[in-house]
């Protein structure tokens, strides 16, 4: 799992390899009190497990995050009011494309950054129009928020225990890449926000 921060190319290669097939993986898996067998049942077991782990809200009674979230939202809103946000140019969109790491795992729509880079001027024009619409409406549609979750074995303990798998989500990142290059000069990379570890 250290490849996530130390070697991005290897990290995405590992995810891609695990997503291609279950060949070489165990033919049964311990999911709580059940032991599903066969590819389809194992996939369903992973889906149920991660749905319960990630989609159902949990509450940490030891810390109240709500005031912090509201405070950060208010701060961001005030900062945005003071800034004239420029619409991205086609050049800025292309620059964001070429700066995204190549050879990464495909997203939920089976797209990689190479699809955009080698799609020619028509793909660039369409992508630019979509991103312009997002900036103008100040609303991010649901599609770029969707991700493809892949179970990755943590290489510890029992391989048949579903609790020994971590869910890694691959998201479309082009829109975020534009924002990243805009805010990076003003961001202290050593600072982690308190809310980064929030559990919802």
From TrEMBL:
Q: Which domain of life is it from?
A: Eukaryota
Name of the molecule in the record: Reverse transcriptase domain-containing protein
Q: What is the lineage of its organism?
A: Eukaryota, Metazoa, Spiralia, Lophotrochozoa, Mollusca
């Amino acid at each position: 799992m250290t490849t996530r921060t130390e070697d991005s190319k290897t990290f995405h290669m590992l995810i891609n390899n695990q997503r291609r097939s279950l060949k070489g993986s165990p033919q049964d898996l311990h999911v709580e009190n059940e032991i599903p067998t066969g590819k389809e049942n194992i996939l369903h077991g992973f889906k149920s497990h991660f749905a319960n782990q990630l989609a159902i809200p949990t509450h940490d009674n030891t810390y109240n995050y709500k005031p912090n979230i509201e405070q950060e939202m208010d701060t961001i809103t005030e900062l945005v009011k003071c800034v004239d946000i420029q619409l991205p140019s086609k050049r800025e969109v292309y620059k964001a494309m070429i700066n995204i790491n190549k050879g990464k795992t495909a997203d939920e729509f089976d797209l990689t950054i190479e699809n955009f880079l080698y799609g020619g001027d028509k793909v660039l024009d369409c992508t630019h129009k979509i991103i312009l619409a997002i900036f103008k409406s100040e609303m991010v549609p649901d599609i770029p928020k969707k991700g493809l979750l892949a179970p990755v074995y943590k290489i510890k303990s029992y391989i048949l225990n579903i609790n020994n798998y971590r869910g890694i989500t691959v998201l479309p990142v082009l829109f975020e890449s534009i924002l990243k290059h805009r805010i990076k000069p003003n961001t202290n990379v050593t600072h982690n926000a308190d809310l980064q570890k929030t559990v919802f």
